[in-house]
Amino acid sequence: MKRKARLMQGNEACVEGAIAAGMRFFAGYPITPSTEIAELSSEKLPCVGGKFIQMEDEIASMAAIIGASLTGLKSMTATSGPGFSLKQENLGYAGITEVPCVVVNVQRGGPSTGLPTSPAQGEIMQARWGTHGDHPVIALTPSSVRETFDLTIRAFNLSEKYRIPVILLMDEVIGHMRERVELPDTSELEIIDRKRPAGNKEDYKAYKADEDLIPPMANFGEGYRYHVTGLVHDETGFPSNSSVVADKLVRRLADKIEMHKDDIIQWEEQNTEDADIVIVSIGGVSRAADTAMKMLRSKGLKVGTFRPITVWPFPEKRLEELAEKVNTFVVAEMNLGQMVLEVERIIKNKAKIERVNKVNGEAIYPEEIVTKIEEVL
Amino acid sequence: MPSAVVDKFFRTNKLPQIWCPGCGHGIITRAITVAVEKLGFDRDKICVVSGIGCSSRATGYLDFDTLHTTHGRALPFATGVKLANPDMKVIVITGDGDCTAIGGNHLIHACRRNIGITTIVFNNNIYGMTGGQYSPTTPKFDKGTTAPYGNIDKAFDISNLAASAGATYVGRSTAYHTNLLISLIENGLKNDGFSLIEAISSCPTYYGRKNKKGDAVNMLEWQKDHAVNISAASKMTPESLEGKFLIGEFKNSPEPEYTSEYQKIIDRFNKE
Amino acid sequence: MDKHEIRLSGSGGQGLILAGIILAEAAIIDGKNAVQTQSYGPEARGGASKAEVIISTEKIDFPKVRECDIFLSLTQKSYDQYSKGLKEGGIMIVDSIVNANNAKNKVYSAPIIDTAAHVIGKAMVTNIVALGALVAISNAVTREALEQAVLSRVPKGTEELNKKALEMGYIMGENAIK
User: How many CA atoms lie within 13 A of B219 on its CB side?
Assistant: First the structure.
């Protein structure tokens, strides 16, 4: 069947993907440049029997999606910089209580109110460490409109499968860009739902994990009558001050993602087979990296690209392998150097690392990456 | 031996609770279960949500679906539960600090939406869990560990705040006036929209000690002596009401409930 | 490779972002790839606003205009701010109110705003008149595709008005080439 090609905005593709993934609840608060996601959700959700609510702030929005998810609805919120800061406490709550949900952050210029209508990637580290305490994180970074659709679905799937809040870390370039897309038929999509409990309701232990370290999840209103708390809790879900219980819980939450990281981690690489130089980038910057690579290849330089699709967990193993044969990694990002810290940690001294950074509210242009590479050669 | 209602609705294996001897919170928590028992609700369709603080620990002892959330945020979590599954009866248990300081904005917006949540505010005029700091309902000039020279803030009147913000059922009672409290909670639960019941509790450990209010019994006696039912108050002179506070049903004016209004939007698409 | 990098500029409220969307949709109807981006300030009305469209028969990597082939400007402010990126031999189209004497490129000047407001009588079709003129001058997309794209985007009941706006734009563009 020939699919219909159409022009679509990144933020719109996010909503299309969310609904295709089964999103039936959205709570949000208007903020540029993510607002279209709330607007389109408010329009589309009632048509599929879903619910939209504009809350009084981003804190409340994050709270509401957790409450909704506990009743069994796939839930999402979307925001940008300042709103992402406000969501952090309840993001941690969703983590420790293992409530599936998707949090979209369309990154704009910061810090503080910053540059509301301009692109940036200043929340790579906040996505990883923004909420307090030790916790695992899954953050996905689309670099095209079509990939925004696909990764929004994947965000829901990973969230449901691993019972963890998943961050869709977009940037303004991708969120506001419109491009030609052909969306797949819904029958072609893989949709994953949370693991449900088996056995007697009376015997249900809300936080007793299976061998995969993931506890089956009952919905509120089904008669399981269980307790959910942000306090450290034992397998039954009730609070505990025991050091043994605390250690076991915090480690299980981390191990739950560590154990399955091969299933979670994704990246894309181009022309790395013979590359002396590899450009590392995510999101909107990867579009500049692709053009830069082509410009340099046409000049006879052996340049490749490496694009983490899951920026968290970072595709560590593959980058390590590449460092065995690549001379120089050029990390390009719309911030003063965040992802490069992770690249440095992984590569250590096995290769040279160069940076291309930009924080003036404009996208990184291919020429800037080309100039940097020609400079350091 | 726990009473029948405690045996039925409490997670008795989690008892005794963490509250201090003489705290009013146990009485209020039990009152909620008595109201639920009287109404004969399906207990599997009840969700109790709380924030952070002494009162918010109540959810751990109640045998329903219970959600102990973050500080001040019980109402937006509860909003998510209720809108996602309007068949559930959603009860919020919160304290004066949780509900009117850090969660104050959520309170007025939940009232404004008239969403079907019954909120019980355990008002003990102090932050108990953190050791006795003054709260938005600590009376002016009273002391707390962060008001060693007396509190200069004016106190919130939670019931009037909720009524003004749009809650459609509002009442106030005390730990002493338990029968009134039970009937207010019952009526609040019967209201489809947003209900708020302010339950005056007592904290002999911090508020009482800091302000020389005597022991637990003295504090309950104070409630008995200073509460005036709103129906009686209309016949009293301003002088005789001096230093007293009102209890009773303050507002009962049902309006369309939020989730049923939302359902009407969904139904427009079902028809097409 | 057939590639056009197009920049549409003016002030907020002139509908240039919508014009960019329509142009990109027309390119897709023509069976090509298209990317549309924009930059704008905090103002919903006024200020300098710009929409960019890249049309190509191949995959488009970098989505922003770097070497502009076609530049349209409807205000002096946007001309001053954004005209610099036009490449040698590129097409410069400006409204008659814009002073483009310092341009190094050949300038096609046309009374776009005035025609919309006074000849057609609806200032809201300024962007459609502009698209007609741009396509008549540049052939960036086919006229059939443009008309189809315009009609699928404009409000119901305004189809005839917008067709007329396109026609006027085409005529203006044809006159400008002569």
Answer: 25
Inter-chain touch C35–A179, beta carbons under 8 Å = yes
Q: Cβ(C130)–Cβ(C78) under 8 Å? A: no
| Contact flag A176-C64 (C-beta cutoff 8 Å) | no
- Tokens 């509301």 -> residue: A116
H-helix or E-strand spanning residue C148:
helix C143-153
| Helix residue spans in chain A (DSSP H) | 10-21, 35-44, 58-70, 81-97, 124-129, 145-162, 172-176, 243-259, 261-264, 283-298, 316-323, 339-347, 366-376
pTM tops 0.90, yes or no: yes
**Contact between A70 and B68 using a beta-carbon 8 Å cutoff:** no
Strand blocks (E) in chain C: 3-12, 33-39, 46-56, 68-73, 86-95, 107-110
Class of the CATH domain delimited by A268-376:
alpha beta
Q: What is the ipTM of this complex?
A: 0.97
A290–chain C nearest CA distance, Å? 6
Q: Could you give the CA distance from residue C34 to residue A178 in angstroms, rounded to a whole number? A: 8
Q: What is the pLDDT along chain B (272 residues), one digit of tens a residue?
A: 568 999 999 999 999 999 999 999 999 999 999 999 999 999 999 999 999 999 999 999 999 999 999 999 999 999 999 999 999 999 999 999 999 999 999 999 999 999 999 999 999 999 999 999 999 999 999 999 999 999 999 999 999 999 999 999 999 999 999 999 999 999 999 999 999 999 999 999 999 999 999 999 999 999 999 999 999 999 999 999 999 999 999 999 999 999 999 999 999 998 65
Domain that includes residue C20, residue range: 3-111+139-157
Chain B interface with A: residues with Cβ < 8 Å: 11, 14, 43-45, 47, 49, 59-60, 63-70, 73, 75-85, 87-88, 105-106, 109, 262, 265-266, 268-270
Please identify, in words, the CATH class of the domain defined by B4-271: alpha beta
Per CATH, the homologous superfamily of domain A5-188 is Thiamin diphosphate (ThDP)-binding fold, Pyr/PP domains (3.40.50.970)
Q: What is the CATH number of the domain that holds C57?
A: 3.40.920.10
Asked whether the beta carbons of residue A287 and residue C36 sit closer than 8 angstroms, the reply is: no
If you measure CA to CA, which chain B residue comes closest to A238?
Answer: B60
3-state secondary structure labels for all residues of chain B: CCCHHHHHHECHHHCCCCCCCCCCHHHHHHHHHHHHHHHCCCHHHEEEEECCCCHHHHHHHECCEEEECCCCCHHHHHHHHHHHCCCCEEEEEEEHHHHHHHCHHHHHHHHHHCCCEEEEEEECCEECCCCCEECCCCCCCCCECCECCCCCCCCCCHHHHHHHHCCCEEEEEECCCHHHHHHHHHHHHHCCCCEEEEEECCCHHHHHHHCCCCCHHHHHHHHHHHEEEHHHHCCCCHHHHCCCEEEEEEEECCCCCHHHHHHHHHHHHHHC
